[in-house]
Design a protein that fits this description.
about 250 residues, alpha/beta, about 45% helix, Rossmann fold, 9 helices
Amino acid sequence: MNANPTVLITGATAGIGLELARLYAQEGARLVLVGRRDRAELDDRLFSRATYCRADLARSDAPEIVRSFLAEHAIESLDLLVHNAAVAQYGSIADEAPQVIAEQVAVNVAAPVGLTKALAAVLERAGGKVVFVSSVVADLPCADFAVYAATKAALDGFARSLHVEWRGRIDVQVVHPGAVKTGFHVKASVPPELVSSPRIPSAQQAAAGIRRLVATRRRSPTLGFLNRLTRFAGRRLGRPMDWALRRSRA
């Protein structure tokens, strides 16, 4: 990557995305930060007219809004695209409203696919890299989080195919953090006791770990030893893992 790369981060106004933005800013990167909050609510030292693109990734026109922002600011090449934005809803699939399911599919799958397509040319011009922030739940049965887990599994599949399709042109990586202490779980209505472990990293810690992984050439790394172990079990121990999770719920 260039000494002063151009880095685009989605979901950049809070949580992991915000901490990643701060890290890359400290390194001298030129930032393009995407979020749906009003810029007046944000820190103008990081979110300026030149760096902040307001776009709702649940809308089908979001990729074109971002592409137009790059053109407006004469950004002709992009070194790094980080698909960090995601939404979720905790609870039984029977209780999820259709619009909540649709939003998860739109933000977690359709937006990364559409935005990657829209920015392929500027990425290739820089010999750039696309990073998808997935989750360990992509490889696990995840009761009460079924739609979210399915969207992350879809993201993994898309990244795997792109790695083959774009080999030698654009690098593709998908990183898998576990639970992180951010407002994400509050918005998703996850019971607080499920994310209260002191082992769960802060957004700042998770962002630092993801930044280290992005600097490697590993295709599908996992953040943290316990998450690596859990993901390995999810992929290699299908039925025993399903049985164990059913027992734990009972």
